[in-house]
Specification:
About 75% of the residues lie in helices and about 0% in strands. Helix 1 runs parallel beside helix 9, helix 2 packs across helix 9 and helix 3 packs across helix 8.
Length: about 210
């Protein structure tokens, strides 16, 4: 991969990754709820999901999904439904931390559960398959082996994405003290829940 191509790729990924979305919002919410260190499991879950989608796209699974009538639509609606469900959970949490249900707090906070929930958030947007399929090929030099180029792009993406995870997590910790009060907690849950619902509805209505 030429250096100027890599710089263009890195700059584009920097702005795309930094744009608030379900993954970043989920990491921030987990940081507010669990603290910075324990929210690393959520970061890992979201990142592994995105990595899986990028890998699937690189292996041509996007074309396969689009070739099967209705397959992509099913995944899209399933992802939209899950994001809307997360919004509902936030709205009904009241003064409780996001994603915590009555009698399930200890289980919900277990690292594996935090990871799996974050992974589900990351995988809930099958449009990322199309994003990867349309975005990555633009930076591939067909005259050179594709494997090394893909590895460089994934490594670059990983550094940028994880860096943004920590930025959002630190932002969450900065407002955590304020959110100890019931009224701000309700406001935070309402805003984040509304954002998840908007993401879900946008995904459901996307074509």
């Amino acid at each position: 991969m030429a250096l100027h191509t890599w710089w263009l790729f890195a700059a584009t990924v920097f702005f795309i990754s930094g744009t608030p979305g379900p993954n970043m919002l989920h990491v921030m919410a987990r940081s507010v709820e669990l603290g910075l260190v324990r929210s690393i499991a959520a970061m890992a879950g979201c990142f592994c999901a995105v990595l899986a989608l990028l890998s699937a796209s690189a292996m041509g699974l996007t074309a396969l999904l689009l070739a099967i009538p209705g397959a992509f639509a099913v995944l899209r609606y399933a992802g939209a439904a899950y994001l809307i469900y997360l919004g509902y959970r936030a709205w009904t949490a009241g003064e409780e931390p996001l994603d915590i249900g009555e009698g399930t707090q200890a289980a919900e906070r277990a690292p594996l559960r935090v990871f799996s929930t974050a992974f589900a958030v990351g995988m809930s947007n099958p449009k990322a398959l199309l994003f990867a399929a349309a975005f990555l090929p633009q930076f591939i030099d067909t005259a050179l082996p594709k494997g090394p180029q893909f590895a460089v792009m994934v490594a670059t993406f990983a550094v940028i994405e994880i860096s943004w995870f920590f930025v959002y997590a630190l932002a969450g910790r900065r407002i955590a003290v304020w959110l100890e009060q019931p009224a701000p907690r309700r406001l935070f849950n309402g805003v984040t829940g509304g954002a998840f619902v908007v993401f879900g509805l946008a995904m459901a209505g996307a074509r």
